[in-house]
């Protein structure tokens, strides 16, 4: 028999101090979404307009897959959301590569695209994969050719602001390369000419952090008749290695639905989710009787427990990243959970669109 080391015991004790109190035998926590019944749409917090649109469409008789994709399209079209579609942050070469998937409960069919360039609405392309092909996932050049065949127009998805953010990251990446970091450049001796239309972009970029950034939009919906669909769309991790695919377009990881049980989706560190297939797990847990919030929390706890790499763990038992889950159940109950306290998600039902607090694994907010 092996005995835990002193370090293991210390880490476990300190983890107990920061972990949420989901202990066996304790009264079940109640969450506002537990009691909800009927049509509802749930999304990541940046998807508030998506839930409003998807709810309008499901209550107007649209297929739930069209509803969630049209909801997500609003976020994909918004250049100010740098996590998805037009204006998404690019890969390490400065090229925007998008991932998306849609799952349709009534047919239990899915469609997805990954590493798609030049098309601002990957979720719509994914819906064409679902409806018009025998395949589930198209990637890269093949996905782009398919999108062209479906009539999608190509465009440059990099905005002036995301180009400048990429440039700032690239220049400050290393002192060993030939690009000068901000603090390696000499001050000019006079005014520097900046084209007027670029001035605002430059100023904004100076204020933004240059670390890797994540972000995604997820939206799930259930119709008044109880049919379910779910969609996740993203530009993925900023400055990623070209060709990197995260969890968002992978069915069972970033998105999953079962018309008899419910739907789930995720945003946050895709690599952590890919190794745990959390969306599939959340739907399975709801099928075994958990509420959406309990199921999201359990999946989040498993991600923490399965994080073994030292570079991703902190001495206090927490981890160095975040992951967020969103779920709805066949009866209309909904919920969400994150690793860190203070997270939220969007929901729209008969009371309108609003932001709800998410449950969390850790009882503390993410460190700065
Ligand atoms: N999950 C996305 C990915 O890993 C990114 C995110 O949601 O922040 O590609």
Task: Describe the protein in words.
This protein has helices at 6-18, 48-59, 64-76, 122-132, 140-149, 160-171, 196-207, 270-274, 278-287, 292-305; strands at residues 40-44, 98-104, 109-116, 137-139, 217-222, 228-234, 255-258, 262-268, 323-329, 334-338, 344-349, 352-357, 359-360. The protein is α+β, with helices and mostly antiparallel strands and 368 residues long. It has 10 helices and 13 strands. It starts with 5 loop residues before the first helix and ends in an 8-residue tail after the last strand. Helix content is 30%, strand content 20%. Bound molecules: aspartic acid (ASP). Aspartic acid binds at residues 214-216, 234, 236-237, 246-248, 267-268, 270.
Structure characteristics:
368 residues, alpha+beta, Glutamine Phosphoribosylpyrophosphate, subunit 1, domain 1, 8-stranded mixed sheet, 5-stranded mixed sheet, 13 strands, binds aspartic acid
Task: Please give the radius of gyration in angstroms.
Answer: 21 Å
Under the CATH scheme, the architecture is 4-Layer Sandwich
Distance between the termini: 40 Å
How many individual β-strands? 13
Compute the number of structural domains: 1
């Amino acid at each position: 028999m092996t005995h835990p080391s002193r370090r293991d015991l210390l880490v476990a004790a300190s983890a107990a101090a920061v972990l949420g109190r989901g202990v066996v035998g304790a009264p079940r926590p109640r969450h506002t979404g537990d009691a909800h019944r009927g049509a509802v749409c749930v999304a990541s917090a940046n998807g508030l307009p998506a839930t409003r649109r998807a709810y309008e469409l499901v209550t107007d008789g649209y297929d739930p897959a069209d509803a969630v994709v049209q909801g997500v399209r609003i976020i994909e079209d918004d250049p100010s959301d740098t996590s998805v579609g037009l204006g998404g942050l690019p890969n390490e070469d400065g090229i925007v590569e998008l991932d998306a998937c849609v799952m349709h409960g009534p047919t239990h069919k899915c469609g997805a695209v990954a590493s798609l360039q030049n098309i601002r609405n990957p979720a719509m392309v994914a819906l064409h994969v679902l409806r018009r092909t025998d395949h589930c996932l198209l990637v890269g050049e093949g996905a782009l050719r398919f999108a062209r065949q479906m009539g999608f127009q190509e465009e440059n998805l990099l905005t002036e602001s995301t180009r400048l953010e990429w440039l700032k990251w690239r220049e400050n990446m290393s002192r060993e390369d030939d690009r000068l970091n901000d603090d390696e450049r000499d001050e000019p001796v006079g005014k520097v000419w900046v084209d007027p239309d670029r001035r605002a972009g430059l100023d904004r970029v100076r204020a933004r952090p240059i670390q890797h950034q994540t972000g995604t939009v997820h939206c799930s919906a259930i119709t008044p008749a109880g049919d379910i669909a779910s969609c996740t769309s993203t530009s993925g991790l900023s400055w990623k290695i070209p060709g990197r695919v995260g969890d968002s377009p992978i069915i069972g990881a970033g998105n999953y639905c079962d018309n008899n049980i419910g739907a789930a989706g995720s945003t946050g560190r895709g690599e952590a989710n890919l190794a745990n297939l959390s969306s599939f797990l959340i739907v399975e847990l709801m099928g075994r009787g958990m509420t959406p919030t309990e199921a999201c929390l359990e999946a989040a706890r498993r991600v923490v427990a399965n994080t073994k790499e030292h570079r991703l763990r902190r001495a206090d038992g927490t981890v160095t990243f975040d992951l967020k889950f969103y779920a709805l159940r066949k009866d209309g109950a909904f919920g969400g959970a994150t690793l860190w306290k203070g997270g939220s998600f969007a929901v729209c039902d008969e009371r309108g669109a609003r932001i709800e607090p998410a449950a969390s694994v850790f009882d503390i907010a993410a460190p700065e």
